[in-house]
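Issue: ligand-bound run for KG4 - logging full I/O for the record.

Environment: standard queue, default settings, no custom constraints.

Inputs:
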Amino acid sequence: MIVLGIETSCDDTAAALVEDGTKVLASVVSSQDALHGPFGGVVPELASRRHLDALVPVMNEALKRAGLSLAEVDGLAVTAGPGLIGSLLVGTAFAKGLALATAKPIVPVDHLSAHIHALFLERDPPEFPFVALLVSGGHTDLHLVSSHTKTEIIGRTRDDAAGEAFDKVAKLLDLGYPGGPAIQRLAEKGSREAIPFPRALAKHDSFDFSFSGIKTAVANYLKGYSRDSELSREDVAASFQEAVVDVLTQKGVDAAVRSRVKGIAAVGGVAANLRFRELLEARAQARGLRFYFPSIELCTDNGAMVAAAGYHLLKDNPDGSVLDFDAYSRKKALKEPFPDPRPESSG
Ligand code: KG4
Ligand code: ZN
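Outputs:
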């Protein structure tokens, strides 16, 4: 089954064609980084407008790269939420119109489920159940994933997402947006131990996180040293990055051990961070856990992960295709399975 996945939840316009939820035939992402860069963050109104312009060319490019026509697509999957509501409305309205015009089945996909499904596009996917650290610009959660359609959130950030902390600290260091990759590059030349930035909730007996304090700690540090020629921006970047990935990996591995699963995975934009991958791998191995990451380009937002998640909804529910689903901006309450936005299952 060939699924066309469409993703517009934030500032990337993406479309992809995926076969049987595992094989990427083509994946095209049109980044809006240059558009939002001067503002130091995503401007929602600009994002929605750019999605409107980019969607058709991005989809056509994906079809062209896969050597397919729209007629050869078996079903559509589109991100319904959570994310920026204006951006989501553009993507869902486009996908619904396409489904109607081509008489193809369509399913709404949860963005968090999509990030986790990036794992199934790799050669060696995890076996259920496993624990996933979902770490992006909008989310930082620990999921206990028990099937393609069921997960339980066992920990979450109480304030900022880890990616948000990377972006805010990058702004303090004048590194531009998005901050994660820029901090990683600067950190390569710095010392991880130079500055002992706080590890919030590290010793707390829960799998919750908190990343707003570290941003303030970095701001205070920079203020205190503003006239000190000794200040190394590289050390600030490396020490900040270490503090964030230290807590993430420690809690992730602890959660996997306590949940008695065999594997730990990391997904979402921050999972592209090389120091994060290295530390998670080392700590997972030390505790006898298998570890999994999507390839770097499938960590950040893309259409392939949406198609992979949508495949399981289309396959399991041949009659589940509906047009009257809504976009939603916020994630559903804790301990719920991936919200299934189809009306017939919401009661
Ligand atoms: O998953 P994603 O593309 O969008 C959301 O769903 O939020 O994640 C984007 C986030 C941004 O905050 C970005 O700074 C961060 O992922 N990011 C990274 C790296 N690459 C992207 N953070 C740390 N290191 C990276 N290499
Ligand atoms: Zn995302």
